[in-house]
């Protein structure tokens, strides 16, 4: 596969511009089904299921997505430290085999919001959490693949005779921007997930992670997460971006965007990088827009790529030239954006990726 396209689903309609996280039931099953099927019909490969200390359980959400679609795969986000890696391995392998095999992956989020960590009882500091994540991923992979029982004694986990009768090939995704994260990701991850930063900074990040992976005799692939804002013309796309900015500003000012936020105790290096870049310059590389980033503060991926479908596809494919082979795109109008992207953006990304494939030897 020359390119992998990811989306993201939620259990209720909510984004920076509309809906409510707090009002109404936290799970709307018909909405989740419609959201998942929209991704499948639009040609996405996989959808991310997010994690929060007060959010619905990602494994159960993943099971619903897998059972209401035919080929769509899932990427289950979780924070290591609350469930043992041996049990997570059995949960993943069981879910994968019950849904046809090859449709399940896991994303390791070590955590940068101190208040949200403490909601689940985690009081470790930033670097200790990353050491725990690295050990977790090593034991998880071994449990998923070992045909024989094994013992393990490390800083955070100890097992005797660990073994799973059900095994599967589960890709391990990982994210983080700190030196501690680079060390863990380079040693353990299959896919290293990056937020949408400018091309120059992204190239530097890829070089750092590749160098760390090489130290361990490994190769690694990369994912980039952005928020496309697409319209029929470039002018209309920037007009839409301004409407999104205005709607977000109103919600932030009114407190509607304060759900689940910590108390100003973010230790996320990646979020700090985005805030610094946005404060210095609102638009980078012609189309990478920090308008929403500057309003919502440290948090998830919030940088947008603005333009026509052709312009956005070309902007994203420049990251592919740097080594990114997976793109996670999610919208401010969650379902409607997915439907729109399926008509133009997704096909253009796939076609452009094929055109950028190096010629085969002897061709």
TrEMBL record:
InterPro entries (UniProt xref): Luciferase-like_dom, Luciferase-like_sf, SsuD_RutA_monooxygenase
Keyword list (alphabetical) reads: Flavoprotein, FMN, Monooxygenase, Oxidoreductase
Query: Origin organism of this chain?
Result: Streptosporangium subroseum
Q: What is a GO molecular function of this protein?
A: alkanesulfonate monooxygenase activity
Does the keyword field hold Oxidoreductase? yes
Q: Which SUPFAM superfamilies match?
A: Bacterial luciferase-like
Q: What is a biological process (GO) this protein takes part in?
A: alkanesulfonate catabolic process
Protein name per its UniProtKB record: Alkanesulfonate monooxygenase
Top-rank taxon? Bacteria
Q: What is the lineage of its organism?
A: Bacteria, Bacillati, Actinomycetota, Actinomycetes, Streptosporangiales
Q: State the Gene3D superfamilies in the record.
A: Luciferase-like domain (3.20.20.30)
Q: Where is the Luciferase-like domain?
A: 22-325
Asked if the Swiss-Prot or TrEMBL record annotates the protein with the keyword Oxidoreductase, the reply is yes
């Amino acid at each position: 596969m020359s390119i992998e396209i990811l989306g993201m689903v939620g259990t209720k309609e909510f984004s920076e511009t509309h809906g409510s996280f707090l009002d109404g039931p936290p799970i709307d099953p018909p909405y989740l089904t419609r959201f998942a099927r929209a991704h499948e019909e639009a040609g996405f490969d996989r959808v991310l299921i997010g994690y929060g200390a007060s959010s619905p359980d990602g494994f159960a959400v993943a099971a619903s997505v897998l059972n209401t679609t035919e080929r769509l795969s899932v990427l289950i986000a979780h924070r290591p430290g609350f469930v043992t890696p041996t049990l997570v391995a059995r949960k993943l392998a069981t879910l994968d085999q019950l849904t046809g095999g090859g449709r399940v992956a896991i994303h390791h989020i070590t955590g940068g919001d101190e208040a949200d960590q403490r909601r689940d009882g985690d009081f470790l500091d930033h670097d200790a959490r990353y050491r725990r994540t690295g050990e977790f991923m090593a034991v998880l992979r071994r449990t998923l693949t070992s045909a024989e029982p094994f013992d393990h004694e490390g800083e955070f986990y100890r097992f005797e005779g660990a073994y799973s009768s059900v095994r599967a090939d589960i890709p391990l995704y990982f994210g983080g921007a700190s030196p501690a994260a680079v060390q863990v990701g380079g040693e353990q991850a299959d896919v290293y997930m990056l937020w949408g930063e400018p091309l120059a900074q992204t190239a530097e990040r890829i070089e750092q992670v590749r160098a760390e992976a090489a130290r361990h005799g490994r190769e690694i692939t990369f994912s980039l997460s952005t928020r496309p804002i697409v319209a029929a013309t470039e002018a209309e796309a920037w007009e839409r971006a301004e409407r999104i900015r205005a709607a977000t500003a109103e919600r932030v000012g009114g407190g509607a965007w304060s759900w689940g936020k910590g108390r100003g105790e973010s230790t996320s290096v990646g979020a700090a990088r985005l805030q610094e870049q946005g404060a210095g310059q609102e638009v980078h590389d012609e189309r990478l827009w920090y308008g929403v980033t500057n309003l919502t503060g440290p948090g998830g991926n919030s940088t947008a790529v603005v333009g026509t479908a052709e312009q956005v596809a070309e902007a994203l494919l420049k990251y592919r030239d740097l080594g990114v082979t997976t793109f996670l795109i999610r919208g401010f109008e969650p379902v409607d954006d997915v439907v729109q992207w399926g008509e133009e953006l997704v096909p253009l990304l796939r076609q452009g990726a094929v055109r950028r494939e190096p010629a085969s030897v002897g061709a």
